[in-house]
Specification:
Helices cover 27% and strands 30% of the residues. With 193 residues, it is an alpha+beta fold. The chain has a six-stranded antiparallel barrel with strand order 1-4-3-2-7-8. Strands 5-6 form a two-stranded antiparallel sheet. Strand 7 and strand 8 form a beta hairpin. It comes from Musa troglodytarum.
């Protein structure tokens, strides 16, 4: 990473592989992507890793509404700040519509990362550390994401227009470097105990 950013923490994210025939090996590098309503990670080999589907979600919007529902960094941050600023009453819960990036009322970490990297508030380095195939054929991969903050943070720089979003993301982050090293050096091919 460039010298104007410093490693400040890491987090682990479980992602699904939409095409189970394509999997990655532990250590494979991947990068964040945003393509319309789809936000996730793409490996150097082109394998997509997407957030776990919300099993309670409403069906996707109609084609003519897809452009309006496409998450942009501005819409993501606005939706997050509106969700934090208001406590819904019982009546408003019935009228609530699906906001892109929200999973059970909380914004997904992948959408938070996408918004913060789009505003250049954080840089990331991501790599696959674990692969798990479930009995129903679903493949999930654990991605270790290193978070790099601008050096200016230590001089008083603050997150522009996205402080609450950054705070929410960093609640999931860790700086336990022994755990990070063990994730990177663990032999995942060994039998589980």
């Amino acid at each position: 990473m460039e010298s104007d950013h410093k490693l400040c923490g890491f987090l682990q994210v479980v992602l699904s592989v939409p095409s189970p025939t394509q999997t990655l090996t532990p250590g494979a590098s991947c990068s964040l992507f945003s393509d319309g309503p789809n936000v996730g990670f793409r490996s150097d080999e082109g394998v997509l890793l997407l957030p776990l589907p919300d099993r309670t979600a409403a069906p996707p919007p109609a084609t003519e509404d897809a452009a309006a529902a496409t998450p942009t960094p501005e819409r993501t941050i606005a939706a997050f700040e509106n969700a934090v600023a208001t406590l819904p009453s019982l009546a408003s819960k019935r009228r609530r519509r699906k906001v892109a990036g929200l999973v059970n009322g909380s914004m997904s970490v992948v959408h938070q990362l996408q918004a913060l990297t789009a505003y250049k508030c954080v840089k990331i380095d991501a790599r696959v550390v674990r692969i798990s195939a479930r009995g129903d054929g679903e493949v999930r991969e654990v991605v270790l994401i290193d978070l790099y903050l601008p050096i200016a943070v230590w001089s008083g720089w603050q997150f522009p227009r996205s402080g609450a979003l950054a705070a929410s993301l960093f609640k999931h982050a860790s700086c336990n470097w022994e755990v990070r090293i063990s994730l990177l050096t663990f032999d995942w091919k060994a039998k589980d105990f």
